[in-house]
Amino acid sequence: MADRRLQVFYTVAKQLSFTKAADILYMTQPAVTFQVKQLEEHFNTRLFERSHGKISLTPAGELVLGYAERILAMTGEMEARVGELTGQVTGPLMIGASTTIAEYQLPRILGEFKERFPQVQARLTVANSETIALKIADHSLDVGLIEAPSHNPNLTTLACCEDELVMICSPNHPLSNRPNVGAREIADQPYVSREHGSGTREVVDDFFKHNGVNPDDLHIEMELGSREAIKGAVEAGLGVAIMSASTVTKEIQLGTLVAVPLSPRLTRELSLVYAPEKFRSKLLDAFIGFVENKFQQCNVDVVPLKRPAKGRGR
Q1: Which residues are CB-contacts of 238 (< 8 A; sequence separation ≥ 6)?
Q2: pLDDT at 230 (0 to 100)
């Protein structure tokens, strides 16, 4: 309901990127640029400085951003309040998710949520856990699903379910037939790691520290920001990695990877985060409750760690 130009400007100002804003808003970059230009013409002043491929807010842009934040927040609250009076769950919902959750758990959950509440306009941003938490804190997103608890004291974190992490390796790797593997044994192997800021990286680094291994002493062959890239590197024999068991089910069934349990067993909590000071609309409450209920089911999911033996039934 708020002026579309203001919504587009706000997103560009928060991202400091026309390209990223276009992705978030599901618009083309020229359309985003046009909306910002229209707003600049309305105020008869530039709102962004453009230099060497980067943009920054002008003093006028900073002023407009402050008002835009309040106007959009009040508009969202107004729509939510009216929706509550009419008994409807409707409106925009800005969701953030870390890559593992976005790729493996969220599609089914979001699809079912949309079936139940078809008038909700859900928008999904995918990034690592640290980035999602920052976007929740600055109100760029309404709610986030991340792989590690947020350390931001201004956010509320709700643990949704437990996720097990395992070591993955190629089928011909010396550790592939082990019943389990410890931190020191992994430290002796070439290792493929997630990037800093990843929830998985944080949990895995803590695992090594608690089991007598300095993460800086790992033989890291490469750091990758994509789970598919990590799986490809491990399949190619470039090293071992630690990943969520739920992300390698297909590869285990195909026999291209082996997952070995860690000793001691390593689990983490998949968490839902939101800013408590932000208005809790009926829509946000409905989504939080829906996700909590659906994620509880992942606690009983069973992921096979070895490929079924040939000639045996499943």
Answers
A1: 190, 192, 221, 222
A2: 95
